[in-house]
Fold this protein.
Amino acid sequence: MAEIRWHQQETNNVLKALDSNSEGLSQKPAEQRFQAQSPYALPNPSEHRLASIIIRQFTDDLILVLLAAALIFGFIGDLTDTVAILVIVLLNTALGSIQGYRNA
């Protein structure tokens, strides 16, 4: 299907193709087209938006590597490094979730 290059068409041909005229559309046809072509609207936020934002924080590769490192240090018995890594991951998750929630 070839894309129409509107800017290369004659004005009369464009107006005819769009079922319009040089005066523009009257109020009623404009409203009908607006309703038929999905008016601009913001998407409805999901009920679990904050929860999904928090869960998405744990899908980052670096966070997964840090969690694996915390697990390894936990098995080795190095409690200080385990706690430090987990605190860093939790801070990152909290800050990233706050930013994601504000931007959503």
In short: The chain has two domains: 6-36, 49-103. The CA atoms of residues 7 and 49 lie 42 Å apart. The helical segments are 11-17, 27-36, 49-57, 61-76, 79-103.
